Amino acid sequence: MSAAEFARKLRARERVVGYWVVLDNPIGTERIARLGYDYVAVDAQHGLLGYSGLLNAMMAIDAGGGSVGLTRVEANDPAAIGHALDAGSGGIIVPLIDSAEDARAAVAATRYPPRGRRSYGPMRSGLRIGPRPANADESTVLLAMIETPQGLANVREICATEGIDGVYVGPSDLCLAVGGAFPGDPAVAEDFEQAVADIKEAAAEAGIAAGIHTPDGATAARRLEQGYTFASVACDLVHLERVAGEHLEAAKS
Question: What are the HpcH/HpaI aldolase/citrate lyase domain coordinates in residue numbering (predicted)?
């Protein structure tokens, strides 16, 4: 799938499913990108890879041929966003968006003038999307993470920000945002589910995509049935450990 086709599907609120990568393991990432996921998201915020790892991951995703590479950047920072885009990311996930002002800053960092302030230097993105800024703007998706008390309170204003293509729920931080003592805290399960529903509804009202991070395919399917339009299945490190443990238990038994 091309970046332009992915952007069209996501903006049309068609269902898309992705996978989450945190390891600096380009061969593994390439194999994942061949499985049929619509996108593979590389985590530059909490992931275990630096810029060279991100660059190698984007090349691996392109080599896989089936998925579009996205990047969750470490912060709402023009330099970090520009680096990820120049490495070949087809879209950016920006964490910790608290307000419409934050959202506008993220939009500006992903768009070339006059729509934004992205600096021109498409070292790899020009190979995939083309060198013209207007084409790059049209093919690049921007997803704002809703995961803080302020972001939740301002979600409708964030969703209404021109240039935002979708919102993305970070469930661990969102659980803490609604008062949980730890991610998945059952004491706030009702409040958490209400927040998840509120974010989905705010996105639908604004006509933008609504996505959520999930631990497995079954949870992703459930969230899509609830009205989310895209979901990520997480992640390579967790699945590697889980499968290795399952095989160990089977061998011991």
Answer: 18-239
